[in-house]
Amino acid sequence: MWFTVSQWTAPSFTLLNIAPQIQHTCCGCFNYKRTNTNQTRTAMGDATLCVALPTQEKPLMVCGHRERIKRGPSTAEGKATLIKNVTGWEALLHMKIVLQMPGPASGLASFTPPLVAILPPEEHAACGWLYVEEGDSRPVIEELCRLLSERSARAHGYCKELDEALWNACFIDVVGNFDRPCVLDLKIGKIRHSPYTSPEKVQRILMKQHGRTQLVRVCGAYHWYCPSAASGGGDFVGEFLDKASGYNLHTSEEHRDIFRAFFSSTIAMKDVKWSKTDAPDKLRVAARVGACRQRICELLNYFKSLSGSALLTQTAFVSTSLLFVYDAAEAVDGRADCSRANVYLIDFARCSDRRLNFSEEEVGFVQGLQSTVQLLE
């Protein structure tokens, strides 16, 4: 289903007052020391100190798990952040990445949104938010990473500490400085569940597939376009593609049409039946597509390397997504290289140890990445 910006309501957010004591840290955010650990812990700061833009002016550019994501405070450098409830598996992988530990996960750093801080469950640490750039936090993060790794080694199935979203993570909002952020969430692979998902839920997932055989699925998209941009001037129109519409894309050509429309700043995604030569900004489309395709090829090369192959052996990348981003305002204002599009690997909620999950052949993560490259040709 399609909505224009005037028709859909962005997910609301609430910044809860958890009575923090605030100190600036070297990472440019804040260090919050809780004075009441019984209060809700999903927000990162006092509402009077962290004022996000009204949702009607700048909605959260989030396609999935909207109920788990809120705005965080800006860093001292003025970078916007997002706070997400994450599982122990996702927290573990991100901690390994930022710690640059001897191990394969550290190679993913350039492909994931930068982690700013992490908030463990109460039973793990009472120190509050741990900032990855703060020297005093590093030993604590290393210890938490070690404890989670040991817990995963002892797991033999569903594990509350790892499989439930008991952690909170603060990431740099990769579109936070965009004027007209365009975002597309592409789910990768064949499998959307773990071996321990209930049969009822598996059945619901399979029913949604409607017999689809594609290795990718569009989970949602936000798109800004300016129909009169080619002639100069005009106002931007925003549109939103929901998850249900993604399930209705069955063929490779339908996906290619969606991609070409998404990367255009002059044509609506809802009007996807157009040829490459019909796009007034076809050169910009080609530049954006090429930039994203190159990034995915680099990601594939990483997983072919010794460290990437080791990570695939250790970890099942189940139900991860590729996040495509660019700023549509660049197409009109010409303030920057229009090929400045990027792709991030996100959503590691189900990325558990391989021994607890399906084989890579069953998951189809690498196949999904390869399929995406082909769709962008």
UniProtKB/TrEMBL annotation:
EC number: 2.7.-.-
GO molecular function, one term: inositol hexakisphosphate kinase activity
Matching InterPro entries: IPK, IPK_sf
One annotated GO biological process: phosphatidylinositol phosphate biosynthetic process
GO CC terms, sorted: cytoplasm; nucleus
Family, as annotated: Belongs to the inositol phosphokinase (IPK) family.
Keyword presence, Kinase: yes
This protein's UniProt keywords: Kinase, Transferase
Catalytic EC class: transferase
Domain of life: Eukaryota
Name assigned to this protein: Kinase
Keyword Ligase: no
Organism of origin: Trypanosoma vivax (strain Y486)
